[in-house]
Write the structure tokens for this entry.
Amino acid sequence: MKLSLAIVALALAIPTASYAQDSTAVSKGEYPNTFSSGSANVSPFTNQSKRFNDWSISAGVGVPLLQSADLTSIKNGNGKNLFGYSAYVSIDKAITHAFGINLQYDRGETRQGWFNTKDAAPDAKAVAGRTQYDAISILGDINFSNLLRRVDNHSPYRWALHGYAGIGTIAYRAYQKDASGQRLMTEVKPFKLGSMFMQAGTGLKFKVNRRIDLEGRLMYVITGDDTFDGGGDPYSDINRRSSQVSDNFFNATLGLSVKLGKHESHLMWHDPLQEIYYKLDVLANKNQDIEVCKKGDADNDGVCDDWDRQLDTPAGARVDGAGVALDTDLDGVIDLYDKCVTVPGPVENNGCPTTTTGPVVETETKLEGIEFDLNSDRILPSNTPILNNAVNYINSSNGSYNVVGATDTRGTAAYNQKLSERRANNVKNYLVKNGVQSNKLKAVGKGKTDLKYPECEPATKCPEWKNRANRRVYFEAK
């Protein structure tokens, strides 16, 4: 199973791939040298290389209720409970996993006052209105679920809370009816500069399948016009009943979205973290070998090729969330080969400064620890260079070492103790098979009592990268 700290870091940081570091070293169009971070081979995320659908078409119907006006659709205002009708259609573009823009057309009719204009006036003082409207607006779409989702969310991701806000232009014909009959009071033609309006609200989406979403919305429309309700000019007897200068209404709708594109997942629904958790659970429960990366991982750095900006990372190199080899001090020598990881220096001196004003700590670690997948004791291919370095170091030393296995806090103490022992023994066996004398090594299992991050008890208190760091084997001198 191909999974690493880098994937989880990416899932927590999308869309912050722009922060992935590039070396300032000069490149000649190929991997510059064995020390370089390979910035020439780092490919940017572009619209052409996208892996998710980001367009959809939405349509729906609803009920508008005039709420703030001189004639209202609500009984406790200047009217009784009267229901209109509305419909909308929109073209939706997802910009990121949490933000999109919609171009929307609305059409409908509000009904307001003390009786329905389809009926006769009940008395000489009763007044009613109805307004037929058409509107075009641009709406910003914020996916609050993607912004607020917990990193330990294990539930199926089928619901999403959205927020909308935008401006547009509105055209309408407002009618008024009383005992003398019905007449057109106000008409605003389409696309007039003075006919701007605003609307904002929230929606709850349910993913039926990869193509179709259902959504319920509640929008609040601010017309900016005191004549929208059919009360006549702003200074008429009817339009002096309330002091507000804008007739506003609620619009409750139920709609359908159809996602367009050839890819499996839509950008606003894609949840890399949930995908990882799901496949880990399947692996733990069914003991199956699940491949997380559908399109592969060419350089075996744990970052799927879909997201990897550097497809030829050297074996054993630590990478960031976008698959670029880490170069902590940005001196052009990646950490894998840098003998002074935190102090910049030239390539010719293995990344260490040629002159110093004080001591330089060489941070090359021959006995670096390795991490494991959840519920697994399998040594990952990406860890073999680290273990090969350990073979050379132990063989060249006169000391002996404990090979210590540990787990995260998931599972029972007894199970984790056995799992940590299996991890330690697998690493010891690997070292022995590759030339280390067995009497120099002792496998020790510490279960979940030896946490690198003790605050991860229970595991749900921590992001996955900390839990992964707890699932490890490291070396200590006897």
In short: The mean pLDDT is 79. The first strand starts at residue 55 and ends at 68. The radius of gyration is 32 Å.
